Amino acid sequence: MNTEEIKKLLPHRDPFLFIDKVTEISMEHVIAERFVSPSESFFKGHFPNFPIMPGVIIIEAMAQTCGILGSHIMKQAASEKSVYLLCGVEKVRFRKKVMPGDTLRFETKLLANKRKIWKFDSKAFKGNEMVCSAEILCADGSLDE
Question: Is the pTM of this model over 0.90?
Fold first, then answer.
């Protein structure tokens, strides 16, 4: 799945779309990637002489991966009337720094779905090293309610 196909499932757009491609997807899990360009705007201030990808951006990319999986499972494209919202992050652990030029791989699996709330296990890797793990909660924020 390329960027244009991802945009059909997520409402995010540049500069806030943090997934470049999806390499694997099923009804239970998704694997996606993001190249962390040295020209990312957040590196200008985080930190000028020691650029590190902010943890909140890593979590956002993981949440976007969850959104891709949820939309795929529901067979529902992103629209003005349908959007899945980040509503919780639990058990977050950061293990390694993410630097300019790294490629992140996100592996997310569905843990539970109850009353329009989805719970995912999500992990971010660079190579074989885990850089972050979290349980992420998303909720259906459809506007027709």
Answer: yes
